[in-house]
Amino acid sequence: MIRLQRGKIKHMDDRELLALVELGGYPNLVPLYQRYGYRVEMVNSVRKAQAWLKRHRPSVVVAEFYADPQFRDRLSNLESLLATLQRYQANAKVIVLLDKKHLDNLEKVKQRYPVHAVLTFPLNESGMQAVLENL
Asked: What is the pTM of this model?
């Protein structure tokens, strides 16, 4: 099935995955995502992710989570992204990558925004593979 989206043709069965990698330090998972049939867009900031979400409807979003006490109006880096995602693509599955020390903060965020899966560091391909198989 094909639909027109702002001047471009987009296949509805296309599977897009947005990967937000702000910190990194773990294996490159793009080949794994591609083996599962996703077209992958990698961005390195929440602002770039938000701009991309205005034009695309991913079925999966993988994003790192971190909390910083210096954030003045939010708890984490992801709240703005999750709000944008909720507005444009509420059906997307969100997979969060984080350090265990931020689990309590993530629980507070999860009270307002849906999260499909959480993987903690150190991250390995088999953990992500198990999550992708359950989508």
From this structure: 0.86
